[in-house]
């Protein structure tokens, strides 16, 4: 079973790229972030024609998450949004059950400039995610939490880390929040299989970042203990970042052994 996450950076602007990638790679499940579209503007007919069912939690102009599953797979939405701030209307979390696996698709706040209100919101959101994650672990079921976490966990995950020390994605508070989340009992799938390799998932549009491979690893898969023994492969479709009018992120994927 192949599961992918992809920050599309505008689903309508990147729709041809998304559809081409779906056709070429044929993942079973896809979590999308940064749709930048309200629900009524989601290209659901095009997605359906590509062979996928979908649920989404859109938002006008920014944010937005979606989960796609091949049409032969049942997708059951079981939650959207995180508890803790009833007034928070940002569309950043969507949860579904597919093939008896709970899949949480998330788009964690960027948090810049830091320090400041946006960074405070990022840390609060991280705390709310950690509480949800603990609840899921306590249910003792297979769970995947995947998406754009907007954090580079270690210096290995960022090109020239000394340039990022004051950035919200790399500040000590952010990295601690990610490590505290992982310490609940989650496994970083990419690092499980490739503990020492340089792997990036994001390259800025500026300063030829992609050409120089000056990237960041900010899109992650966290697996509950049930799924770690089933993890057989993982990777980044880096070539997609080089396509015309592509997102500044590349798709990231894992493969799990089927029952």
Overview features:
259 residues, alpha+beta, Deoxyribonuclease I, Chain A, six-stranded mixed β-sheet, globular, magnesium, double-stranded DNA 3'-5' DNA exonuclease activity
Radius of gyration: 17 Å
Number of strands: 14
CATH homologous superfamily heading = Endonuclease/exonuclease/phosphatase
Shape: globular
Number of domains: 1
Describe the structure.
The model has no long low-confidence stretch (mean pLDDT 97). Helix 3 packs parallel to helix 4 (172-182). With 259 residues, the chain is α+β, with helices and mostly antiparallel strands. The chain has a six-stranded mixed β-sheet with strand order 3-4-2-1-14-13. Strands 5-6-7-8-12-9 form a six-stranded mixed β-sheet. A two-stranded antiparallel sheet has the order 10-11. 24% of the residues lie in helices and 27% in strands. The N and C termini lie close together (10 Å). It contains seven helices and 14 strands. It has one domain (2-256): Deoxyribonuclease I, Chain A (4-Layer Sandwich), CATH 3.60.10.10. The active site is at 107, 148 (proton donor/acceptor), 249 (proton acceptor). InterPro entries: AP_endonuc_1, AP_endonuclease_F1_BS, AP_endonuclease_F1_CS, Endo/exonu/phosph_ase_sf, Endo/exonuclease/phosphatase, ExoIII-like. This is Exodeoxyribonuclease-3.
């Amino acid at each position: 079973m192949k599961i992918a996450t992809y920050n599309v950076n505008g689903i309508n602007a990147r729709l041809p790229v998304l559809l081409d990638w779906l056709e070429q790679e044929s993942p079973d499940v896809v979590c999308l972030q940064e749709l930048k579209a309200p629900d009524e503007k989601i290209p659901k007919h095009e997605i359906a024609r590509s062979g996928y069912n979908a649920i989404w939690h859109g938002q006008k102009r920014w944010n937005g998450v979606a989960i796609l599953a091949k049409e032969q797979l049942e997708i059951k939405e079981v939650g959207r949004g995180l508890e803790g701030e009833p007034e928070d209307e940002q569309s950043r979390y969507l949860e579904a059950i597919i093939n008896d696996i709970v899949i949480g698709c998330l788009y964690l706040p960027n948090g810049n400039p830091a320090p400041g209100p946006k960074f405070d919101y990022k840390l609060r959101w991280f705390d709310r995610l950690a509480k949800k994650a603990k609840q899921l672990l306590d249910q003792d079921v297979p769970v995947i939490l995947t998406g754009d976490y907007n954090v580079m966990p270690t210096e290995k995950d960022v090109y020239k880390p000394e340039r990022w020390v004051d950035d919200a994605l790399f500040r000590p508070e952010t990295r601690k929040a990610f490590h505290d989340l992982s310490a609940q009992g989650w496994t970083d799938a990419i690092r499980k299989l490739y503990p020492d390799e340089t792997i990036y998932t994001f390259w800025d549009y500026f300063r030829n970042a992609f050409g120089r491979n000056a990237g960041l690893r900010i899109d992650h898969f966290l697996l509950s203990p049930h799924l770690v023994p089933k993890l057989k492969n993982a990777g980044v479709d880096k070539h997609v970042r080089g396509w015309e009018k592509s997102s500044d992120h590349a798709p990231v994927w894992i493969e799990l052994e089927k029952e």
